[in-house]
Amino acid sequence: MYMIKLAIFGFGAVGRGVAKILIDKERIRRLIGEYTVVAIADSKGAIISDSIDLKKALEIKNKEGSLPERLTVDEIIDSVDFDVALELTPTNIKTGEPGLTHIKKCLKKGCHVVTSNKGPLVVAYKELMKLAEKNNVKLMFEATVGGAMPVIKLIKRDLAGNNIISIKGILNGTCNYILSKMEKEKLPYDVVLSEAKELGIAEANESYDVEGIDSAAKLVILANALMNMDVKFDDVEIVGITKITPEAFEIAMEKGYTIRLIAEVNEQTLKVGPRLVSLNNPLCIHGTLNAVLIKTDLAKEVFVIGRGAGSIETASAVISDLAEIYSCEVNK
Ligand SMILES: NC(=O)c1ccc[n+]([C@@H]2O[C@H](COP(=O)([O-])OP(=O)(O)OC[C@H]3O[C@@H](n4cnc5c(N)ncnc54)[C@H](OP(=O)(O)O)[C@@H]3O)[C@@H](O)[C@H]2O)c1
Asked: What are the residues whose beta carbons fall under 8 Å from the beta carbon of 262, sequence distance 6 or more?
C-alpha cells in the first residue's frame, strides 16, 4: 500500500495540534490510509526523517524551543520527497509571506497543500487556485476561516448547486468575547480588553483583531472561494470595535438588541463593522464562538456555529482537509 508522506511547515499552536492528532494512527489511517511525517519545520530549524517520531518531535520543541536541523522550508521543499504540505506558518495579510512562497513552491512541485494561513489566500487566491489546477493538486484551507467551524467545505460540498446570496457572520472570537462581556457586565471596552489580554484571549498587540482586520481577511477568503468573486483586502469597508461604549449597549439592549462585529458579503456589500443584532437572532452568540449565517437560493438559510480558534480545534479543520484530499482521490 502507498505510504502518504506529510510535511508540516510551522510548529506552533496549530502545527503541534496537528502533530498530536497525527499520533493517533488508527484515527488517521481510517481517513487516508498509511502515512508518515517526513519533515517538520519551524522558523529556526527542522526535523527530517523517513518516519518522524511525533511524540519525540513535540518533546524537543517543548524543551528546546526550536527544531535541531538547520534547514529552511524552501530547502526542504527542494530536497525532500513528500505528497502533502501542511502550511501552518504565521499570517501576513500584506505580503502573504512566508506562506505564499511555500505554497507556490509546493504546488509547482506537484504536492497538495493544506493551510491554516490566511495571508497567501488573501493576497493571491486566484493565482494559487490556478496553480493548483495546473499542477493537478489540491489547495485546501478550511482552517483559515472559523477555525474548527465547518464553512468552506460545507458550502462547497454540502451546498453544492446552490447560489450563495450572502454570508454574514462573526469571524473573530476575540471581538465577540469583548463585546459579549461588555454587554453582560456593562463594563467599558478598555477594561474588558485588559482582562481578555490577561486570559490570553486577546494578543498583546490586539489591533489585528479589534480593528476588524482579521475578520476582513476571512471575509475576502469567503467571497473569493465561495461566491466566485475576485476581491482584495482593500475592497472591504472596515470598522473595528474600539469605539463601542457601555452606553451604546444600554441603548441597544433597551430596544431588544445587542452589538456584535459582523462580517458580511453579498453582491453589493463587503463590510466588517459593529452592527445591532436582535437578541433572538442566531448571530447573538456569546464568548469566543464564531458563527455564520449563509443564505442560498435553494437551501435558503443555513446557520453554523463553532470554535473559531484553538490548537486542537484548528487542527481538526486541517485534518478534515487532509481527509478530503484523499477521499477525492478515492472517488476519482
Ligand atoms: N491558533 C489558532 O487558533 C488559529 C486558528 C485559525 C488559523 N490560524 C492560523 O494558523 C497559522 C498558525 O497559527 P499558530 O497559532 O500555530 O501560530 P504560531 O503559534 O505563531 O506558530 C507559527 C509557527 O510557524 C513557524 N514559522 C514562522 N516563520 C516560519 C518560516 N519562515 N518557516 C518555517 N516556520 C516558520 C513558527 O516558528 P517558531 O516556533 O520557531 O516561532 C511557529 O512554529 C497562522 O497563519 C494563523 O493565523 C491559527
From this structure: 168, 169, 170, 272, 273, 274, 275, 277, 283
What is the reported pLDDT for 204? 87
pTM value?
0.97
Whether cis (ω within 30° of 0) applies to the bond prior to 120 is: no
- Domain at 4-146+311-331, CATH homologous superfamily: NAD(P)-binding Rossmann-like Domain (3.40.50.720)
* Angstrom distances, CA of residue 113 to CA of 12, 109, 174, 251, 256: 18, 11, 28, 48, 45
Query: For this structure, is 218 an active site residue?
Result: yes
* pLDDT at 331 (0 to 100): 41
Residue 328: the pLDDT is 63
**Ligand 1 mean position, distance from CA 254 (Å):** 42
CB 167 within 8 Å of CB 297: no
User: Is the C-beta atom of 306 inside 6 A of ligand 1?
Assistant: no
Q: Are the C-beta atoms of 149 and 304 separated by less than 8 Å?
A: yes
- The percent of residues above 70 in pLDDT, for the chain, comes to 98
For residue 198 the three cell numbers come to 490577561
Residue tagged active-site, from 126, 218, 271, 300: 218
Q: Please provide the average confidence, as pLDDT, over all residues in the chain.
A: 96
Bridge partners (DSSP) of residue 294 are 167, 302
Kindly state which CATH superfamily the domain 156-307 is placed in.
Dihydrodipicolinate Reductase; domain 2 (3.30.360.10)
Return d(Cα 273, Cα 211) in angstroms, integer. 9
Span 50-64, pLDDT tens digits: 999 999 999 999 999
